[in-house]
Amino acid sequence: MRQFNEDTLTAAVVERIQRGTKDERFREILASAVKHLHAFARDVHLTEEEWFEGIKFLTSVGQKCDDKRQEFILLSDILGLSMMIVALNHKAPAGATEATVLGPFFAHGAKEYGYGADLREGATLKGEDVYVSGRVLTTDGKPIPNAVLDIWQAKADGIYDLQTEGEFELRGRVRANEKGEYALKSYKPKFYSVPMDGPVGDLVRRTGNHHMRPAHMHAIVSAPGYQPVITHVFVEGDPYLDNDAVYAVKDSLVGKYRKVDDAAEAKRVGMPNPFIRLDWDFRLAAEAGVKARKKIAASDAIA
Ligand SMILES: [Fe+2]
After folding, report:
1. Chain-centre distance of CA 222, in angstroms?
2. Ligand 1 center to residue 159 CA distance, Å?
3. C-alpha 246 to ligand 1 mean position (Å)
4. How far is the CA of 186 from the centre of ligand 1 (A)?
5. Distance of CA 295 from the midpoint of ligand 1 (Å)
6. CA distances from 283 to 47, 91, 101, 138, 229 (A)
7. Can you tell me the mean pLDDT for 114-134?
8. Band of the pLDDT at 118, cuts 50, 70, 90?
9. Ligand 1 center to 174 CA (angstroms)
10. How far lies 198's CA from each of 194, 232, 233, in Å?
11. Of 127, 140, 146, 255, which is the most exposed, with the fewest CB atoms less than 10 Å away?
């Protein structure tokens, strides 16, 4: 076949993909991507100069990535694609903790802790002391023993450890005890700007949108026999809850960080007085009975 025009080209490309691609799912995805990309070009009547600008942009996104910086995840987050994929794939069964974006700042190799983990260890910047505790439960409220909670969050200045040259900070793999209880010490999360010093930042500025994320603690909670959940705990009252730059806020994930001024309680949990306390339970759905999909273990969430 030859002599293609804007009305016949798409079908020819799709036919060629469908003829030669053995993997059924890959064939479906690639053919659909081509159909939508062609439709997009037709829709806006994309010029060569404009498409070259697009290629330059994607090139710069790739060049901004390294072992700490993931500009493509940020792009996916900003365009709402990450939350679209979460929405499609993680409809939490009744009673289970809802999922939200992974974001670009997850890292492998965080230090392992047990009950009472102090994630403030080695912190280069102090913040408001927070004691977080709760349980990891089934959807009907039974304790799940020995779950692992991968926790990470920004420092008090809204910057993640991965954005600096230093060591891991406010990050750890915290194991719950046999009764499903976990506890950790950290600093109160602060709202922050997504990284604006790269091509995705330029894109955000060009759209006139704001670039803030409401304060949150990230968590991946996993236990054998249960679906892991990639989630956040947001801070009640944060000014950016209603306009998160990456569309990740869910009402069920907003936690109350309450001030405690009680010397006895502070002593009991090993905190200075006063301090801030968050009581937060995570609930995991059992693997059985849920539509099969690739398991995401805490250890390979973005592998
Ligand atoms: Fe974050």
Report:
1. 15
2. 9
3. 10
4. 15
5. 22
6. 50, 14, 17, 5, 9
7. 94
8. very high
9. 18
10. 10, 25, 27
11. 140
pLDDT at 293: 46
Q: Which domain holds residue 133?
A: 93-300
Evaluate whether residue 148 is within a structural domain.
Answer: yes
Q: Report yes or no on 219 lying in a domain.
A: yes
Q: Ligand 1 center to residue 157 CA distance, Å?
A: 13
CATH number of domain containing 98: 2.60.130.10
Please tell me the distance between residue 21's alpha carbon and the centre of ligand 1 in angstroms.
38
Centroid of ligand 1 to alpha carbon of 153 (angstroms): 6
How many CB atoms lie under 10 A from the CB of residue 281? 15
Contact call for residues 280 and 131 (beta carbons, < 8 A)? no
Pull the structure tokens for residue 232. 């956040």
Which region among 90-104, 126-140, 233-247, 263-277 has the lowest average model confidence (pLDDT)? 90-104
Q: How many domains does the chain have?
A: 1
**Torsion of the alpha carbons at 194, 196, 200 and 206, rounded to the nearest 10:** 110
- The pTM of the full predicted model, rounded to 2 decimals, is 0.87
Give the pLDDT confidence of 66-90 residue by residue, as tens digits. Answer: 988 999 999 999 999 999 999 999 8
Cα of 189 to ligand 1 centre, how many Å?
A: 9
pLDDT of 299 above 50: no
In a domain, 27, yes or no: no
Measured in Å, residue 217 CA sits from the centre of ligand 1 at: 7
CA of 154 to the centre of ligand 1 (A): 6
**110 domain-assigned:** yes
CA of 103 to the centre of ligand 1 (A): 6
